């Protein structure tokens, strides 16, 4: 397949989308921060199955990083990204500059309320306002019929769903499964930061999620028991997580008893690298 | 002209807008809270001059009222509103219910930053988050080419402009002049609250604005002098304003010296009725 067209100008992007519509083509948007991996590729492939035009946005959004986080060193590789995107079925890459996205005087921000507060919201208090705001901007700049997000950023998918519902944004959301390395590590652009030794220890995160799943499968319903088992397994790999949370699917309400749809979510630093992962428990 | 079609269902509204587009018609949105007067009619007429389809939304938005404000008693008169709208050139009234606009679980809100803080933002701290959020929802529900707002709510026009720019909403904004009663009182749905005696005293608001304009016309540049003259005139009618502010046009930065584009804005209670008005000084 031919490489995607890289567009940096919003007006040009709008033209491309307007031109696709009369032909009856559905337009998909896959918002990313670049440094693409097989997880992103799976989103583009899903989008291409449903839609005639797939736009992938590549923008490392400064407002979702707090001072001291890895905004500056976040991996950037537009050429490599495009090489992955063409074969996956993406025909347009929207790669705006920071100045295009946040011209001087930009101040507006979006707060989606309670679903943004726990878990990542506690560890990164300004993160989801940055995410919601940039996603809303992208939805306005690239008025697609559908947008595709990865389940690895589970709370983010809930934040975007809340915003789209509350602000009546006319876009369908698709949430695609986590893509993992053969050994279970969830695909993440930040995996590139891991040393070989850290890469090995990081496997304990997925192993803990699987252990929790097995315990639930065997009938354990006490969330505290499950959490303690997960924490013990993480400790064996010298990992002290920021959180191991067992929550109600959709609302993130903490569960004491695993009843109904539930999710276990973990955030942990391995060395200096902060990783997140999650698993549907039932 | 025939009376407008009243639509309460967002999906039906979208169908009407989608149907207008292939015919090459520009679509206008005039967001209102109903209880329409000649000011609103002027917005609809301006919209009709520019656009083939004019939609007027009528929704008394609870989230822009604070507890204790006049949400419950705010005048509502859909039948009378429609009688004004047809002849003015509006063909569709979008009049959603509160439950349609804010289904259970709605939590998202939009903060546009510094332009929402002074003046009305100080007197009504939650007001502009409510305004920005409902306007964004209306812009998504009724994806028009242009939206029309009245200059009487001057700070509101700046809030909406900031939001549209910052969130890249693909809509043109038009701000139309204040429409006044023959004696100068700015048209407002809240004028209906005034007793005859209050109605008479309320004229001092516009008179104070005009006095300020005259002083500037005569060369006065000291904002404090101008404010004091306006305050003295208000006091003659027993009006103690919430604010009399002389600010830079566009930014609302308070001015000590009237230089460059400037606006004088007043908020005052006359009896229990809170009125606002403003005038471009130069």
UniProtKB/TrEMBL annotation, chains A, B:
GO molecular function: ATP binding; pantoate-beta-alanine ligase activity
Pathway: Cofactor biosynthesis; (R)-pantothenate biosynthesis; (R)-pantothenate from (R)-pantoate and beta-alanine: step 1/1
Active site, UniProt feature: 40
Enzyme Commission numbers on file: 6.3.2.1
Binding residues for ATP: 33-40, 150-153, 179, 187-190
Domain of life: Bacteria
Recorded catalytic activity of this chain's protein: (R)-pantoate + beta-alanine + ATP = (R)-pantothenate + AMP + diphosphate + H(+)
GO biological process per UniProt: pantothenate biosynthetic process
Chain sites annotated for binding (R)-pantoate: 64, 156
Alphabetic keyword roster: ATP-binding, Cytoplasm, Ligase, Nucleotide-binding, Pantothenate biosynthesis
Compartment annotation: Cytoplasm
Binding site for beta-alanine: 64
Principal location: cytoplasm
Claim: Oxidoreductase is one of the keywords in the record: no
GO cellular component, one term: cytosol
PANTHER family attached to this UniProt entry: CYTIDYLATE KINASE/PANTOATE-BETA-ALANINE LIGASE (PTHR21299), PANTOATE--BETA-ALANINE LIGASE (PTHR21299:SF1)
Subunit architecture: Homodimer.
Family: Belongs to the pantothenate synthetase family.
Miscellaneous comment as given in the Swiss-Prot or TrEMBL entry: The reaction proceeds by a bi uni uni bi ping pong mechanism.
Function: Catalyzes the condensation of pantoate with beta-alanine in an ATP-dependent reaction via a pantoyl-adenylate intermediate.
Protein name, entry field: Pantothenate synthetase
Species in which this protein is naturally found: Posidoniimonas corsicana
